[in-house]
Amino acid sequence: MPTYRPGPVSLIIAAFVALFLLMPLLAVIPVSLTPSRMLAMPSGELSLRHYRALIEDPRWLQSILLSIRIGIVSSAFSTVLALCFSLGVWMFQPRFTAALVGFVLLPMVVPPVVSAITLYFLLTSISGFSSFFGYDTWLGVAMAHAVMTVPFATVLILVSLSQLDRRIDLAARGLGATVWERATRVIMPNIKFGIITAALLSFVLSWEEIGVTLFITSVNAITLPRLMWMGLRDNIDPAIAALSVILIIITVLVLAVRSFVARQRGGH
Amino acid sequence: MRSYLSDRMGAALLMAPLLLFLVVAYAWPFLGVVKWSFTLPTPGLGQYEALLTDDLVQSVFIRTLRIAAVVTVVSVAAAYAITVVWVRGTPAQRLIAEFCILVPFWISVLTRAFGWVALLSNRGLINTWLQAIGFTSEPLALVRNEFGVIVGMTHFLIPFAVFPLASAMRSLDDRVLLAARGLGSSRMRTFWTVFVPMTRSGIIGAAMIVFVFSLGFFVTPAILGGGRSVMIAELIYLRIFQSPDWGLGAAISVVLVLFVGALMALLFRYVRPKQLI
Predict the structure, then answer these.
(1) Where are the domains of chain A?
(2) Membrane-spanning regions, if any (chain B) (predicted)?
(3) Same domain, yes or no, for B130 and B200?
């Protein structure tokens, strides 16, 4: 069957858009190789000093480790909560499901800055009682990130549940399985890719989170994006260019692997 | 038959932790913010009155709406162009388009904003080249102004506009387009009178998403605007952390939520949520 393909004019305009989309990602490469201490284009010689700075300056390493720790804790927390909630929705189909799911999705649709001021209120209130859990603590940041990522985890798990055949659960139920057995031995093995994806996405979202983090940290809980922000606002530090190049390479590799795996499994 | 009661219990037990967590960690503190807007610094409607009278707040609101409108038009148009190729191109074209859409989408907002700083700043790529070829002797002011903010936000939001457009274009029946061509309509005419009108729901969805996102955008305007082109979100941040005026910051947040809520309600009257993904 013939298909309707884009013509030359569409292709030229799309090429410009593609160039626009890639331009800032390519621009950081030459900047990361500048020998200068300030943000500038290298003129002649190249240097890897900014890559070395990433390893040698303990601040970068500390913030990377902190971001990983916060990412793991908040992702585990939000995935478990999202999983229980989604199982409840799918197995029992309670009344008001739409309203309850809508409530859970709020942090995803409310403008991030409003969520940020909300979580700032929460954490400063908690700080009144506790010094290790609240404003500017890593546990506080992990909890705030869990609030922000839990809607995404819920959506992913609900979507993979919606593709599951209800009859296998009915069969298990008919054979006398308890709710616990149905959930852990029948349903969860069938949606494990959805659960893993939810956990990974929660981690990535927490790892890059900056809008909320800016409101709830000051000097102690400096995550990697927070440190980048500080380097971007004042004197622009070319070490950020080196870091950006590394992050871009990781992203491209992960996407390449993912699309390769998808092709192998025959999906789209 | 299992009792109705135990089903209710099971559902409640499984759904309760997340609902409880969000009530305590999200709904309750939001009410706290609402309370701030009515009580700080003095109880009453003073903060909301200030929203209507304060020149600074007014100019920030107007600038935000203006930037959001420009960004919406430019990003939806740009997204449309690349989505056409992503959905209807040859396999090779599709792969390239997908790469150009998904790689920026997954890269953090900070890295992307930084990339634009590297391109647009006085000692950045574009100014270095322009001066090298003798186009200009003084660097052009491309960043730390509204232009830089619009460029950066457009770049960030194009992938978000792509998804609803792609879903609209995928559901479009090829035979209609081929019929138009077969009846003698030119490529251009088929595109403008058949293809575009049939993807209307995608265009509305994409425009709404981009517009709503732009209203609450914080990071990109703060970095590329350099404090000179402040938008609503940055104003909230400044009211909380620089000139401690929590009441005003809270009042602006409440207004922003109401405004975005109204826009979403409007959106869902025209587009079903499923068409947005």
Answers:
(1) 63-224
(2) 65-87, 99-119, 147-166, 203-226, 246-268
(3) yes
Measured CA to CA, the distance from residue B36 to residue B50 in angstroms comes to 14
Nearest of A2, A94, A142, A117 to residue B182 by alpha carbon: A2
Q: Which residue of A has its CA nearest to B77?
A: A17
**A117 contacts B107? CB cut-off 8 A:** no
Q: What is the ipTM of this complex?
A: 0.89
Taking the CA atoms of B168, B170, B176 and B180 in sequence, report the sign of the dihedral they define.
positive
Backbone dihedral angles phi then psi of residue B132, each to the nearest 5 degrees: -65, -40
Helix (H), strand (E) counts: chain B: 15, 0
Q: Please answer yes or no on whether B212 and A240 come within 8 Å at the CB atom.
A: no
| One domain for residues B68 and B137 | yes
Q: Are residues B146 and B265 in the same domain?
A: yes
CA-based torsion, B64, B66, B72, B77: positive or negative: negative
Q: What is the tens place of the pLDDT at every residue in A205-254? A: 999 999 999 999 988 999 999 999 988 876 678 888 899 999 999 999 99
pLDDT greater than 70 at residue A32? yes
Q: Which of B27, B100, B119 sits opposite A24 (nearest CB)?
A: B119
pLDDT at A52: 86
Same domain, B179 and B248: yes
* Pair (B222, B266) in one structural domain: yes
pLDDT in the model for residue B246: 87
